[in-house]
Amino acid sequence: MDDHHDIIFDWNLAGGPPAFAGRSVEVLDESLRDGLQSPSVVDPQLDDKLQLIRLLDDLGVSSVNIGFPGAGPRAAADALALARAIARECLRIRPACAARTLASDITPILSIAQESGLPIEVMAFIGSSPLRQYAEGWDLAEVARLSGAAIDLGVRHGLPVTYVNEDTVRSSPQALEVLFRAAIDHGAHRLCICDTVGHSTPAGVQSILGFTRQLIARSGAKVGIDWHGHNDRGLALSNALHAVEHGADRVHGTALGLGERVGNPPLELLLLNLQLSGATDRDLSKLMEYARLAARAFQVAVPFNYPLVGRDAFRTATGVHAAAILKAERKGQSWLADRIYSGVPAGLFGRTQEIQISHQSGEANVVYWLAQRGVREDPALISAILRMAKESRSTLADSEIEAVLRTYIEAAI
């Protein structure tokens, strides 16, 4: 079977390829900034932060936020150390730092850029929604003034500045027209649309991306569009993919979806979906290493049923599934075996299909388990293992099956 696509009809492509197919889509990792805002994580050791960045570089991720230097001395010291390491190791990934639209926040970034020799991207953020303006006692003119002054400071020192407009999705078109035009006029090279509180639906993403694209077109400037979302409605990943579909050329994510409150789009799942949708073509074989390092470094547990990374993502104990996988492998079709009961090919992402044995299993599960360990099939042994499985209320541990195997071998002797 040379053309595997002959046996899969992909309804995802029935209406044509995605709008972003063939278009360059960039990803910014926010794990070391927004990820650290989760109250349930620990701040990773510097060596772990650097190894995460190396893995991101290997994965072809374009940008990484190396921190918020204005948060304190350790944050500033870590950001400088990471920037120096990126420069020293000649990594391709581009570093960025977060800052409020205040000179006191931007000045440390200027120092990091000077000491590392890298053009650190300034991610200058300020709230724009009426809710925030009311709480802060700001008016629109004050927000525009603070924004323009911050952008000017970064641009004057030769740094790229992204204007991060907090709570963009709950701001009026009239306010955004003023703020976005001011940001463009002051030299911002990107506009970041933020769903800061996880309010958006995919329809809202489409609407605000359309508005922003039209505004940029009218300005005549060459300005990029970022999407930064949160997961309060469980839509962060879907919204990020919709943002790419409707004109964002860079989207933000974090390892395992860590971040403020319930977090951001999970970066590993963002990369997975961009790859399977044809928006990128990267070697993602180190994606599991990245996710596992993040879990250890941030000290967070990964749910067993978490897509791609969870223990059960490619693990089955169901008889029908095991039989289909076994038949595919016996046809010499490893490609088919990796997809017949999996919408995500495990092999593309550094994992393999796993077959276990439980009360839901059939003979194929046992045959597969034995074959993986080089044990010859024997009807009596298969029956003994299945009998134990049917009496168990949970999936059998390898040690339980091995005990049956030892008993069988001793009886044969």
Number of helices: 15
The tally of structural domains comes to 2
Range of strand content: 5-15%
Distance between the first and last residues' Cα = 44 Å
Ranges where pLDDT stays below 50 over 5 or more residues in a row are none
CATH homology-level superfamily of the largest domain? Aldolase class I
C-alpha Rg (nearest Å):
25 Å
Helicity range: 40-55%
Main beta sheet: 8 strands, parallel, barrel
Give the overall shape, derived from the CA principal axes. elongated
Placed side by side, the strands forming the largest sheet appear as 1-2-3-4-5-6-7-8
Pattern of helices and strands: EHEHEHEHHEHEHEHEHHEHHEHHH
Average per-residue pLDDT, rounded, comes to 94
- Would you tell me which CATH topology of the largest domain applies? TIM Barrel
How does CATH name the architecture of the largest domain? Answer: Alpha-Beta Barrel
| Helix-strand makeup class | alpha/beta
Give the total of beta strands: 10
What top-tier CATH class of the largest domain fits best?
Alpha Beta
Secondary structure elements and their pairing?
Layout (H helix, E strand, L loop, with lengths): L25 E4 L16 H13 L4 E3 L7 H16 L5 E7 L2 H14 L4 E7 L2 H7 L3 H17 L4 E6 L6 H13 L4 E6 L6 H18 L4 E6 L6 H10 L4 E4 L13 H10 L10 H12 L16 E2 L2 H12 L3 H4 L16 E2 L7 H10 L6 H13 L6 H15 L1
Parallel strand pairs: 1-2, 1-8, 2-3, 3-4, 4-5, 5-6, 6-7, 7-8, 9-10
Characterization of this structure:
This protein is α/β, with parallel strands linked by helices. Helices cover 45% and strands 11% of the residues. It has helices at residues 46-58, 73-88, 103-116, 130-136, 140-156, 173-185, 202-219, 236-245, 267-276, 287-298, 319-330, 334-337, 363-372, 379-391, 398-412, and strands at 26-29, 63-65, 94-100, 121-127, 161-166, 190-195, 224-229, 250-253, 315-316, 354-355. The strands form two sheets. The protein has an eight-stranded parallel β-barrel with strand order 1-2-3-4-5-6-7-8, surrounded by seven helices. Strands 9-10 form a two-stranded parallel sheet. α1 runs antiparallel to α10. The chain starts with 25 loop residues before the first strand and ends with a helix. The model has no long low-confidence stretch (mean pLDDT 94).
